[in-house]
Design brief:
It is built from five helices and 30 strands. It is mainly β. The protein has a single domain (6-368), classed as TolB, C-terminal domain (Neuraminidase, 6 Propeller), CATH 2.120.10.30. The strands form nine sheets. A four-stranded antiparallel β-sheet has the order 1-30-27-26, with no helix packed on it. Strands 2-3-6-7 form a four-stranded antiparallel β-sheet.
């Protein structure tokens, strides 16, 4: 059994949805040498959603509904976890609270990591909370949006995964793990998780991108770069991911200060190709993205040290277009690829004196991607 060192601390942090929100794109601004200017809420049409609550992980399904998590200020705790609430919203309709089934023998059953599966169902990570945190376990599931039936796709063990993405056959996929300063990628199969067998070369810097999941030593962390947020495109073969080759050879916060790049890769068929970047800067270089269903574009949320910029990136040419500036969290592109929904929060004040109104006053906003019909 691996010693519960860095990953145990990461597990404790990820036990709260607040960690999910803080892992969004640029929640905590840092000083930056830029001219002062007013900070405004993220533009775009607001969507009816619960009020006075944190919102996270929207997933826009083909049925027209956007599924997401929420935690109000008075969230109920069960043991070391909280009882997350599940909702769905759509334009022109009132939000609906959802009930997802509990597992027999679990003190609490919790779902997170919402995403759109290739077959149109809702993908999620399910956690079984037991009486002892060391006996908790996770699996990856598919949820029918009409009946709320849950089908297991993979049993992935004691540690939570992030950004799980599945091939159209749903018999394999990829996922990220966040191991404090040493994030990396894994393969996911029905039996569980598996490592990428060979080092992967990112612009001349190669490292085994799964190593720090299986080897928690500081030496393994230091010699590797960082990778996260895989997303399979519609062909089921091409993988998008974020990587930071500059993290290799560095330790601690020095790893976090490195820039991120968006890459396109077909595992087993050569090295990843850089598409766009660099993204992220300063002490909060957090970047997230979501690809359009046709695989032509990605919407990148890039923290520039003052606000979050939402950029449309052409995945073939690398051309980048600014869509909006504001403050947001996770996002999901509509099934038709014309809009993106963002879990947004109000940042007010000015660039030199930013003020977060409240993480419990989040809202969903729709941003148009500006693509011709």
């Amino acid at each position: 059994m691996r010693p519960p060192t860095r990953r145990a601390r990461t597990l404790a942090l990820s036990a709260a949805l607040l960690a999910v929100v803080l892992s969004g794109c640029g929640l905590l601004p840092v000083p930056a040498p830029v001219p002062d200017h007013p900070l405004r809420p993220l533009p775009g049409a607001p969507l009816s959603a619960p009020v006075d609550t944190m919102l996270a992980q929207p997933a826009w399904l083909p049925d027209g509904w956007i599924y997401y998590l929420s935690d109000p200020d008075d969230m109920e705790r069960v043991g070391h976890l909280h009882r997350t609430r599940y909702w769905r919203s759509r334009p022109g309709a009132e939000p609906q609270q959802l009930t997802l089934p509990d597992l027999a023998g679990c003190r609490l059953t919790r779902y997170d990591q919402f995403d759109r599966l290739p077959d149109g169902r809702l993908g999620a990570q399910r956690q079984c909370l037991t009486e002892d945190v060391h006996d908790d376990w996770y699996d990856q599931v598919a949820i029918d949006p009409e009946t709320m039936r849950v089908d297991k796709l993979a049993r992935t063990g004691r540690w939570p995964l992030n950004s799980i993405t599945w091939a159209p056959s749903l018999d394999h996929g990829y996922a990220a793990y966040y191991d404090e300063f040493c994030p990396g990628l894994l393969r996911v199969i029905p039996a569980g998780t598996a490592r990428f067998p060979d080092p992967v070369d990112f612009d001349g810097v190669a490292w085994p991108i799964s190593e720090t999941y299986f080897d928690e030593s500081e030496a393994a962390c230091k010699r590797n770069g960082s990778t996260r947020q895989p997303q399979l495109l519609a062909d089921g073969v091409t993988l998008l991911l974020l990587a930071s080759p500059g993290a290799a050879g560095r330790q601690g916060s020095a790893r976090e200060n490195q820039r991120w790049f968006l890459y396109r890769w077909q595992p087993g068929a050569g090295a990843p190709v850089r598409v766009a970047g660099p993204f992220g800067r300063g002490l909060d270089p957090v970047v997230s993205y979501a690809a359009t269903p046709d695989g032509r574009y990605a919407v990148v949320c890039d923290s520039n040290g003052v606000a979050d910029r939402f950029l449309r990136v052409d995945l073939h040419s690398g051309e980048t277009v600014l869509l909006a500036e504001g403050h947001g969290n996770q996002m999901s592109v509509s099934p038709d690829g014309r809009q993106v929904v963002v879990a947004a929060y109000p940042y007010l004040g000015s660039a030199r004196e930013p003020v977060l109104a409240s993480i419990y006053r989040m809202e969903l906003r729709l941003i148009d991607l500006g693509l011709a019909s």
